[in-house]
Amino acid sequence: MVLFGADSPRIVNDVMGNLRNHLGTKLGLIPEASYKFLWVTEFPMFEFDEDEKRFKAMHHPFTSPMEVDLDLLEKDPASVRSRAYDMVLNGSEIGGGSMRIYRQDVQQKVFEALGIDREQAEQKFGFLLEALKYGAPPHGGIAFGIDRITAILTGSESIRDVIAFPKTQRATCPLTGAPTPVSPEQLKELGIHIVTRKER
Q1: Distance from CA of residue 53 to its chain's centroid?
Q2: Distance CA 142, CA 95 (A)
Q3: Alpha carbon distance 3, 13 (integer Å)
Q4: I need a labelling partner for 182 at 20 to 30 A (CA). Which of 96, 117, 157, 166 fits?
Q5: pLDDT in tens, 11-63
Q6: Is residue 85 helix, strand or coil?
Q7: How many helices (H) and strands (E) does the chain have?
Q8: Nearest to 133 by CA among 99, 98, 107, 100
Q9: CA distances (Å), origin 121, targets 10, 22, 36, 143
């Protein structure tokens, strides 16, 4: 049997990955009580958005590119690899993070690869570019999803089974009732004005 998909690489990878997991479970090919860990590294730095016809950050625009790929930022952004990393357990991502950009010149080149010119970068991230002038140390981080780890350890099919107060599929919270209406005072404090259809 040969399986194939035809679409953008991202969609094909998602579909084939989900199909592999489904068949592995259905055919009993995944051993029970077996924990297999995997580090995923060297993610692409950018992905091309067909709708907007420009590159977007795969992780976030402050992720550091690999040192050996710095020269490609201007020539071939699609080939640049990032210093991002994920930890996977039994096919599920349980943690991820990245090393951050700590050099102003590198951050500026990344912004340019994303279609953010110097003026826009100054308007949106001037504080960061200014801070980087003074020499930030190399730094990074990682965050683990305790709910995902707990779901795997308990054999739950969904993280909803182990989250104390899970959100519904409509993004509402049964505990707090969120989202709730915002008071006029809060809107005024934030400088937000709501325009209704009648006012248009």
Answers
A1: 20
A2: 7
A3: 12
A4: 166
A5: 999 999 899 888 988 998 877 767 889 999 999 999 988 888 889 999 999 99
A6: strand
A7: 6, 6
A8: 107
A9: 28, 44, 42, 27
